[in-house]
């Protein structure tokens, strides 16, 4: 009996009930259920791939780009990798019940703050079937019920994945409604999640800037913004230019289309031409195209590279491609000013040997991560040792940067007395 | 030169600039400024009280209740107490720069997560002039700029207080626009704060349920809900009834009209009549009126007490008065069900000696604080040793329960390498 609720309201109420039933479960119970989900995904890989094939066929007919088709496509190996990712989540320590602070007060009252599940986590995301399982597994690990709304191009894949996960839950002690999807309701499902005050404890949109903006503007439930990355690399006059070149190449070209790639290169005026000559050939060799700002056009000798005029629009653009804006700034303070103006608050990097410049940059720039003589590509839950991530928060409340299972918890104070009253 | 901006947009931009200037300041610099504010409040107590007298006169003419007038009124002693509260904030440790986690990764990259200011904190609150100074001082302590919107009945008092604080800042290294008010714009000022995406990092409404609901529904900036307290006291069959009585009296009558007072008394069916007889005389003696639910009316002998019929509306009401709803439930599980249905997620209490009942309650109820054999009145930043609080969060994201200076910070990852790139 894993049939979904027939009405949106019933589905929301069922998820809330499931959250209530999940709250008192032990980490072991949840890990057993997650392991069962991992096994079931492999057992039913055939059916999952068949459903995915329908999505891929329709997407191809509709002219979806090869890059997006690749993110949509599943095969037996990929289903195996998804199951393996769930097993890695099983191996993480249980965040629920962790004591975050506590003390015995002078009057003998014991005050302990512990981690508890958030409750119901809603997730709206693009057509990437692996996110369906990642999000459900991370939410469940932290004791939450999850309501999913995936990209419509993945509707058959997601239906199959959710069905397999719910069937696996049905064989355990956990409520089946710990995992559900509003995909059958389409856009109305997403809208219902945004209105679901009292049912949804947090809404996490993961996708393009437009989706995130719509959630922030329309939602009446708390939203965690994720993943918009207009990241900068500032090369100070004191920089080691070999480091600068290696970091620029890694941060721009290792993987195109990720939120922790750089989109603008800022060169300190004092050494702008030297830095340009040291860094740019390696980028150009990899097919990078330069959008050169007004200051840079005045100062740099650009001959021999593919470049176009860059302006404020370029500075504000997250290219997610082999394009990069280039501008010259007058030292670290002007770099900070430029970044404060255009940054999306994801990751900002400085290459410098001068300790004062580094200190000014670290204290003056406002972002989820600041990379000093290191690539912006390290802003990643796996890289930082936080385990799998449900997204990278670019807002300042609750969670900032890579969000692992801890970001899917809240806390509660447990005040234990022996008849204590307040004097 | 402490004149405010003439246009709302300019004021928002000035606050954002001030936040940028505050971010790199040291805790010492901020403490010096806070001490100067405390001194200035005492020096200018005369002018502050004169402005307040105008507010009190107008409020009296308009028929404001004596309770609210009392919260509005300032005199020399109260201004002294407000200044003293600022000095207590000076004495708190600086939350900014605190390392919250960190490690050296296998590749040698040093990853450190540190506390940073949130940026611009906006606060909308009722006509209580002390909140004007508390909120500004707590925000500044954590390195934030604050934009205030106080209840219109306190407009003259708040103008005087903000002017004194800004004048004090003008004599320090900190930006004057670290503290500003949109009071001159009235309701339009509040609306502007709710729309101020990119300028306001968090909006904290503090006041009645209506204000908080409006902010949650209308705001495009992140909101932290505070202070709605529909708190319950459940008396289990295993309870020590002397404890139950003392806690009920303390939690209901010590201070009426506070969010951590109880509004409903739930009695375990097995011992309902005994518990009623043990607890209720002391409450009745203090003038408490009972709104008795259907189950309780069937079971209890109510003769001799002032009571009325209670129903679902009563269960959902935060009385903030000497009224209390009473209902009988069938053991701890039904108590949990009742509380999950009506709780505002503030503080929920159980009196019990049975460890299993306590454990079920603590794991099954979802609230910012759970009081076990203790009064709900302990949910308070000062009582829990967190220092002064800017409000009590009843939501689950970012901060839950009493919010001290730590709740006014975010974090950032500082990734320090020596040319590290991601393999």
TrEMBL record, chains A, B:
Pfam families: Aldedh (PF00171). Its EC number is 1.2.1.41. It catalyses: L-glutamate 5-semialdehyde + phosphate + NADP(+) = L-glutamyl 5-phosphate + NADPH + H(+). Keywords: Amino-acid biosynthesis, Cytoplasm, NADP, Oxidoreductase, Proline biosynthesis. Signal peptide: none annotated. It is found in: Cytoplasm. It is an enzyme of class 1 (oxidoreductase). Residues 4-293 form the Aldehyde dehydrogenase domain. Belongs to the gamma-glutamyl phosphate reductase family. This is Gamma-glutamyl phosphate reductase. It comes from Nanchangia anserum.
